[in-house]
Amino acid sequence: MYKLVIGDRDSKELLGLKWLISKYSFPISLVKTVNQLTEVMMVLEKELPEILFIELDMIPREKWNLMKTFIDRYTMEVIAVTAEPTFERATEAIEIGAVDLIVKPLSPLKIKSSLQKAFRNVTEFKRREKGEELQQTLWYKSLFTDDQLAYRAPVYLMKTEKRGFLGELRQFIDQFNFSFTPLVFSTTDRIVLVFEQPILEPTHQAQRFLREWEQMNEESIVIAVHQGKSDDSLHQIYMKLRKVLEVSFFTGYQQVLHSDQNDEWHDIDPFLTLTEQRHWIYMLEESRMEELKDWLYEHFYGLEFPYPEPGLLRTRLTSILAQIRRFMLRKGLTDNRSEVLYKQVFESILYSPILYRIVQDLILFLTHLLHESVDFRPVSRRNVIEETLIYIDEHYSDPALNLKEVADYVLRNPAYLSHTLTQKYGQSFREILNSTRISKAKELLTSTEESIQSIASHVGFKSPNYFSRVFKETTGKTPGEYRKEGE
Fold this sequence. Notes:
Rossmann fold
């Protein structure tokens, strides 16, 4: 039976959580509820609970490091809760190794699922811990405490893409035909195989293990291999393999990695620069889905050694999600479906083991939002022609402006829009655009001293010569002649 401590500032929330948990058949001998941070620390130190259910918002910044120390010392699993799904909270959840970050209002099913994960991890950990022989216990301690003794035999570190499959992986290990039977140690999310003597081709054996696992199971795994040819201690080997495993965040699972590969992280700024923030605002406001995808592909796909530290990259993704959240609030995109998808992407950024999947989730979410944004756009308040002319007037300076872009904005087929413009004004889209540009150029020629080349660029012409030709066709005068007459 296990102990559970729940910390939340809301006393009513605490009562509700305690009642809800009592309705489930969890192996709990004690549930303590506290609404003050100092009490949380005292209870942790006194009761040594296996699981802590904590509201992150109750931890002030100046007490954060102290609270982290208490969590590391006095509990095994943490479930984090917040009323504010921000990247700061996401970072905090990552720092304390939370099995889940639940966003209020709390869902009974989510609470149950998170507690099941936590109890499963604790149970597995304690079962392995209790079942080891004395020799294995000594080795187990060597994994986590550096005894400075060189270990010159192979070590494998394995991880499943989904934590719930660790039990199946352990069973497969027990049945697999190794060259020499290894000592097997389980943590909450990984399995360590320690061989007690050198073996021939440890990498080939790991690859054979992976092939046979693939034939029997759909779940993906990754294996990091230490060949046993260094003077590192078992603890140093384990820490190096843990770091190597993190590469799977970029390269995916179903592969064998090596401890001698480059394990240095590339330092990055985890937050968007002011320029990047402005660019994201522009792309979102203008519904530039292709540009958004290109930006995400450029910054998160095709990364090579040295990779950025995964935690910093997750923080950067939450910084992007913060910009998307502000866009949602500005546009009123807070319907139930959008909110559910937002929370799913938030959790994907926090916990998805593969970067590729996070980016795909983000792209699907952006596609949904921009589609909703277009649906909510008040096109009906003005007719299509008025919307078209206003868009041209606001974007004439863009040399790349074309009929398809404007038609997409007003939600019409390009051919239909072109026909409607010609019918109403007797001019094509290109003629109307050029007329707008020439009108703006006239204003600049008579009110400023800018060069004709500069004015041509300002009103959307790439070529000054082409600008002069269109200007003369429209006004009967060259830009220079028009300026002189206006003096």
